[in-house]
Structure formats: structure tokens, C-alpha cells
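Usage

Read records sequentially. Each one opens with the input sequence:
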Amino acid sequence: MSLQRLYIPVGFSAKAYPIPSFTAIIPMLSGCSGWIGKSKIITWDPLKTTVASSRLVITAHAKNDPIDFNVKFNGLDLRSFFWGEGTKCTEQSDIIDVQIVNGSNLLEVDACKHLPWIGVASVDVEAYIEVVFEGEIPETSWWEYLQQWLNTNWPMMALGLGSVMLGTVTLVYLARPDN
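and closes with the structure output:
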């Protein structure tokens, strides 16, 4: 007997959609990080499947203190975390009921220094969306995997492409014949 049958009624299925981990960095002379977002594509066929419930499971770890940390999902304010003086390097987490949309769902966070002080501060964020479907379990298409991979890895791809271009220009310049 599977664990799914122990907790979910027959005809329902749960699926977790991980959001790539990221860090909200507050620059040295700034008070806040600004809203930083990561999207997750969740699609289903409305004729075959309905969403029974969906929850955001989020874990945040502040490397500095005191810090205010706010969470939005699909534009709605969800939760605020606070790390007071002497609580840095502690983890806070929550499970929050959310409304997902058929398509791209956006998790946004904003970290602010509670007291103005000079120095870089950061909060590490890990999250996933847990969805309970009624009906057919939606499969993730190759296009959604590719889109999510590109959203996660585009900075490294841009850096690599820039390095290749710079190396090619340098090679062409150095390999040209002397006149």
C-alpha cells in the first residue's frame, strides 16, 4: 500500500512542483533587496483535471540579523518573517494555502534590513508548491522542463556565451596574419 492512499482519498493525486532555490541579497548601502521572483509553470487540462487544493511550502534562512522578509505568491501578500537581534543563521518555514493558475505561478520575496547598517545581508529561500488534483494527473511536458531550466540557468548561459564570444574575438585577433 502506498503512502498516497493513506493520506489522499481515492481519485485524488498529490504532486510537488519544486521552485529553484535562490538568495535574496540586500546590497551594502541599500535597505532592501527589492522584490525577487521565481516562477513555476503548472499546467493541467481543465476538462480532465481540477485542482482540489494547493499549498506553498517555504523555508527561509537568514545569514544576518535583524531582517524583515516578505513573501508574495501570484501578486498576493502571504507571509512576513522576522529575524530579531541574535537570531541569524536560524531557519523559518511555513505551509501556506495558495491559489495557483493554469500556467506560470510566481513566488516573490523581499528582504529588508530592520535597522540601517552598512554591510551585505542575505536570505536563502527554498520552496515548492504541493498540488492535490482530482481526476487525471497532469504530466509536465518537455517544453515546460526546458522553459524552467532556461529560467534557472540563463545567467550562467549568458556568462558562458559572453566568454565564448570574447575568446573567439581574441583568437581571431591573435591569429590574423601580420602585414
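Summary fields computed downstream for this record:
- Residues 141-179 form one domain.
- Residues 18 and 108 are 15 Å apart (CA to CA).
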